[in-house]
Q: What sequence folds into this?
């Protein structure tokens, strides 16, 4: 149970509560640095303290999107003070607020296109991203202030961060990705679940594994991927 | 971990947010719809400020849609002004911190 209460947490809780009440929260997976905060409940360790995170609260939506009900995200957020913004030439939608920025993501398909992907069931568009399937394949559900929130399995979250760190143009963001990945992988190891790291890592394409290895080497934590006999 | 990198990103976001709040405020219908009862009948006036003076324009018997539109605009204006004020504070703080004037 998280005990720090700030305006940002309160707003996050309210957004999640409204999405949950509208019946659409279980059709999406929370992605991005907020996951690290939610993982506190998963690891149940007081020493697991999330690193710095931005205001971005990302929601990954599987394709095809499956929602029990149709909803209008703009209406759901009505009265909370969000303002809609269209980012870049592709017009990726994001809902901005001084405390939070909400964005929707979908896995990139085929040869890859950065064009905004419409999600009619939510009345929004989403930004396609490579490797996002890694986060959507195996999810866990945790409670945040009594609201069930779907998250990527921590191991998948961490390995995804290590992969995308290799594709970043921005060195600060790459460093942040690596730091978050290391924090989560260390917690997984301390929780005695190194086997899951090994299994997920082994299931990935060789190119992805090389990217993970490179990121861990850069972070000075190559030891976090266990060998055949464990760490 | 580069805290300044995160702050630069947040500053960009806050500056964009400021522009969007200002655009949304500018797009809202000006003024507030005020009800006056004259000889038992309800009439509406659009009240707004112009050049430092309060203006009152007779609108007659406004439709429920018009009344709701102005009520919604009034609520949104207060909401957006509140958020805009927070965003401006964030921008001042972030710029100061990036210049090294604020403790990070």
A:
């Amino acid at each position: 149970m998280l005990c720090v209460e700030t305006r940002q947490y309160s707003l996050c809780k309210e957004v999640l509560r409204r999405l949950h009440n509208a019946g659409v929260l279980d059709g999406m997976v929370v992605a991005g640095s907020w996951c690290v905060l939610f993982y506190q409940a998963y690891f149940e360790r007081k020493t697991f303290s999330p690193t710095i995170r931005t205001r971005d609260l990302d929601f990954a939506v599987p394709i095809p999107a499956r929602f029990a009900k149709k909803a209008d995200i703009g209406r759901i957020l009505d009265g909370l003070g969000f303002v809609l913004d269209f980012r870049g030439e592709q017009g990726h939608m994001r809902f901005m607020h001084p405390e939070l920025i909400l964005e929707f993501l979908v896995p990139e398909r085929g040869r890859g296109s950065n064009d905004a992907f419409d999600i009619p069931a939510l009345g929004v568009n989403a930004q396609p991203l490579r490797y996002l399937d890694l986060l959507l394949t195996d999810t866990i559900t945790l409670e945040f202030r009594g609201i069930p929130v779907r998250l990527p399995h921590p191991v998948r979250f961490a390995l995804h961060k290590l992969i995308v760190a290799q594709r970043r143009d921005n060195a600060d963001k790459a460093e942040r990705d690596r730091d978050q990945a290391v924090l989560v992988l260390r917690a997984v190891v301390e929780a005695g679940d190194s086997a899951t790291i090994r299994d997920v890592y082994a299931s990935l394409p060789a190119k992805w594994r090389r990217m993970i290895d490179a990121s861990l080497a850069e972070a000075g934590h190559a030891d976090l991927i266990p060998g055949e006999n464990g760490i | 971990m580069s805290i300044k990198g995160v702050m630069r990103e947040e500053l960009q976001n806050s500056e964009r947010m400021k522009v969007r709040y200002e655009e949304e405020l500018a797009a809202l219908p000006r003024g507030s719809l005020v009800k006056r009862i004259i000889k038992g009948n309800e009439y509406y006036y659009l009240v707004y400020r112009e050049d430092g003076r309060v203006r009152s324009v007779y609108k007659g018997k406004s439709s429920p849609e018009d009344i709701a539109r102005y009520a919604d605009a009034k609520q949104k204006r207060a909401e957006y002004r509140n958020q805009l004020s927070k965003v401006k504070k964030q921008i001042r703080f972030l710029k100061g911190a990036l210049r090294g004037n604020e403790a990070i």
Observations:
- Chain B touches chain A through 24 residues (CB under 8 Å).
